[in-house]
Specification:
375 residues; Methylamine Dehydrogenase, Chain H; four-stranded antiparallel β-sheet; 28 strands
Length: 375
């Protein structure tokens, strides 16, 4: 009996030692989001602490801002790990996406906060049981667009980001928005929607509305997978979706481009690679070039590519394979972003690395190590 007691006590001591070691040992950070601010001077990152193998409790999250030129940490604050953030173009405000409006943890999906301090700016007007997906800031950061969902019914809304007041409501029970955006002049709201036809058939459409009146200015079918994000060129002419962002393992070979100056006529921007998952896009300010970062995965390794198209002709200009060391440990589809001028590509690697890559040379010009506190 005494031997069994000693053996049990020994096991308990071992478990306690392991638990203490896991508690005190720093955990790696998985960077889930990176985004350049509109001026290109700062990079925002949202990282999650990897959970302990012996615990079902989630780790912490950390929201940080970095100086692009020096790599210096500008600010760091803790956020809930489940918080997927949407940033305003200037990087001053953010909002959590896809969360119920009220939660016991205090984290809500209707709170606009200041990125650097976490100070609450406003609460968006909506029902307490509603969920918002997706959310998008306007180009000037003054408006938020989102689709509220409750009890199976959805509405597309616009809110003022300073007061939280609803400024527009577009009620269309037949449309389920999967991606929302604004035109560069903020006068149009664009939504990629799943539309139930005749009560059973689901079709994919792109809908363009007047921001003020809500009137439909254009709508056209989408023949590819469900868009999860799209880009509008700075001159407002071209609309591009990359539906393969969360598509199947096989990926895609092309992007779809719509021309607003030609009744939204579409063309495919074809790549030389058979199976690509597009991660980030950049359109030049003059609307002449489109650059894309994409990966092609196999059972053995992942390969990354930088692609460039001429938008006037739709023809590819170049396809460049990135060094394998940059791609092998990419964390998530949101963990990459082009700088506003298109000269840099930010990539995140496990555990907690962010690399700034010069697009022309494909060389790392800045490497950032994510940690909870400033060095």
């Amino acid at each position: 009996m005494q031997k069994r007691f000693v053996a049990l006590l020994g096991c308990l001591l071992i478990l306690a030692t392991v638990a203490m070691a896991q508690t005190t040992t720093p955990r790696p950070w998985d960077v889930e989001q990176v985004q350049f601010t509109r001026d290109g001077k700062r990079l925002l990152s949202n990282a999650e602490e990897r959970p302990l193998p012996t615990s079902s409790l989630p780790g912490k999250g950390v929201l940080q801002g970095w100086d692009v030129e020096t790599g210096r940490l500008l600010f760091s604050r803790t956020v809930a790990q489940s918080s997927k953030l949407v940033f305003a173009p200037d990087g001053e405000l953010c909002v959590s996406a896809g969360l119920p409006f009220k939660q016991p943890t205090g984290l809500t999906g209707n709170t606009v906060v200041k990125v650097e301090t976490g100070e609450v700016v406003c609460e968006l007007e909506a029902g307490s049981d509603e969920k918002v997906l997706p959310l998008t800031f306007s180009a000037d950061g003054k408006l938020l667009a989102g689709r509220t969902l409750a009890h199976g019914a959805g509405r597309l809304r616009l809110w003022d980001t300073q007061s939280g007041k609803q400024v527009s409501l577009y009620d269309d029970a037949h449309d389920h928005a999967t991606a929302i955006g604004f035109s560069p002049d903020n006068q149009q709201v664009i939504a990629a929607v799943e539309r139930l036809v005749e009560g059973q058939k689901i079709e994919l459409w792109m809908v363009v509305r007047d921001r003020t009146t809500g009137a439909k200015q254009a709508e056209f079918p989408i023949r590819q997978a469900i868009p999860t994000s799209f880009f509008v060129s700075a001159n407002g002419r071209f609309l591009v979706d990359f539906a393969s962002l969360k598509s199947s393992f096989r990926g895609s070979k092309s992007l779809t481009l719509w021309d607003a100056h030609n009744e939204f006529a579409s063309q495919n921007l074809k790549a030389d690679i058979l199976s690509l998952n597009f991660k980030s896009l950049w359109i030049s300010p003059d609307g002449r070039h489109l650059k894309a970062f994409a990966v092609s995965a196999s059972c053995l390794f992942t390969t990354g590519y930088l692609l460039d198209w001429d938008l006037a002709t739709g023809k590819p200009l170049s396809t460049v394979k990135l060094p394998q060391t940059l791609i092998s440990q990419l964390t998530s589809a949101r963990a990459s972003d082009f700088s506003p001028d298109g000269t840099l590509l930010a990539l995140s690697n496990r555990p907690g690395d962010i690399k700034l890559v010069a697009v022309e040379s494909n060389k790392v010009v800045q490497e950032i190590k994510v940690s909870e506190k400033a060095e």
